[in-house]
Amino acid sequence: MTTAVIVGIDPHRKVFTATALDERGRRVADEHFANTSVGHHAALRWARELGSVSKVILNRVPAGRGVAVVE
To answer: What is the number of domains present in the chain?
Structure first.
């Protein structure tokens, strides 16, 4: 059975942090990636290796004032 994961992204100018949670909200893994197309592809591979990505939550504005959810 494939584990479903929810990935949260906190972007910054040069790097971004990705955190994966399981379906119960437990932290599975954290990783930092370059904020470039190479880093974006690496993050996608990383997330898919952890399980089936069910949702991505992206912090779009500093201090969490704007959040995008992709299902």
So the answer is: 1
Nearest to 57 by CA among 27, 18, 24, 30: 18
Note the pLDDT tens digit of each residue in 28-39: 999 999 999 999
Q: Which domain holds residue 54?
A: 4-58
Whether residue 65 lies inside any domain: the answer is no
Rg (CA), the chain: 12
User: 27 pLDDT exceeds 90?
Assistant: yes
Residue 71 lies in a domain: no
The three-class DSSP label of residue 36 is coil
